Amino acid sequence: MLPYGRQSISESDVEAVAEVLRGDWLTTGPAVGRFEEELARWTGGVPCVSVTSGTAALHVAYVAAGVRTGDEVVTSPLTFVATAATAALLGARVVFADVQPDTGNLDPEAVAALVTPRTRAVTAVDYAGHPADYDELRALCDPAGAVLVADAAHSIGSAYKDRPVGSLADLTTFSFFPTKTVTTAEGGAVAAADPEMLRRALRFRNHGLVRDPAEQREPDTGGWHQEVHEFGLNYRLPDVLCALGLAQLGRLGRFRERRSELVARYDALLRDVPGLTLPVQRAYVRPSRHLYPVRILAGRRREVYDRMRAAGIGVQVNYLPAYLHPVFGDLGYRRGLCPRAEEFYAEELSLPLFADLTDAQQDRVVDTLAGILG
């Protein structure tokens, strides 16, 4: 089965991991800092905190933003459920705003109608790797005193108006799952420009431990002493995985170039295929595509999905609108809440896209899809 996404592992990746395994530090060692410093090169210098997954990154970001019980978090429904679930687990009320019909990204006009004095955060999702409209969202957040969060699980290496993803929001989260552009097997990160948000993120990912005597309440206990002032969790990404991520970041430029080539080929080869809408790109955005999401028209998405997979091509659907999961239905969310997101979902199909996809494999995808729709 040709997958819709997969990791690209080289011998340099293997050697980087092996070097750590031969050393003294498997976790909480020097590879963690090196990985975070290298990642910050891709965020325009914004400091980064590595964590155990993209979901952990969202949890850490919401804690750093000060999200608490009774707050509201406005976000897109067209995302993996973790974007909303991590806010709900902190006691926030998740408010879903509809998406733009072409990009699938959060619609600033829809957000404007939903921001209230209780809005603590607005979380944009860079769907498929295309950055959201951050200037418009910033103009809504700042007057409301809301924190702007970017779920950039799809968009590492992308740029918006010549500014890198990671520098556009108050907090940015990344995912390094194997299907993403860069992988640490499992892993994620939070980028935070504000020193206080960065401090909260660092502390929360390490049990909330306070080790600096200057910040402790009983600093003279002894050199072993550490304190917890606010609860945290163990979200530390170990050196073994950071070593893999560091090696992967060294190839991010090449990953982006190859994905761009494949996107351009899809655009050209599928342009005249009937019953198909291709993804769009804003003129002011330079996306690093994680997905190539086409839309299958005339109610044929299920048929096309089944026939493509029967042909050995592992297409995927991204995503069931988050509020349509039963857990949100049990909380009172109902179908019809965001009609554009639901329409997008009903037609969306992600075609294979990953750095090691060959032209011949891509031609097979195109020929099979065109044969079904032709």
UniProtKB/TrEMBL annotation:
One MF annotation (Gene Ontology) recorded for this entry: pyridoxal phosphate binding
InterPro entries: DegT/StrS_aminotransferase (IPR000653), PyrdxlP-dep_Trfase (IPR015424), PyrdxlP-dep_Trfase_major (IPR015421), PyrdxlP-dep_Trfase_small (IPR015422)
Record protein name field: Aminotransferase class V-fold PLP-dependent enzyme
Keyword flag Transferase: yes
Similarity annotation: Belongs to the DegT/DnrJ/EryC1 family.
Listed cofactors: pyridoxal 5'-phosphate
One Pfam family this sequence matches: DegT_DnrJ_EryC1
GO biological process, one term: polysaccharide biosynthetic process
Keyword list, A-Z: Aminotransferase, Pyridoxal phosphate, Transferase
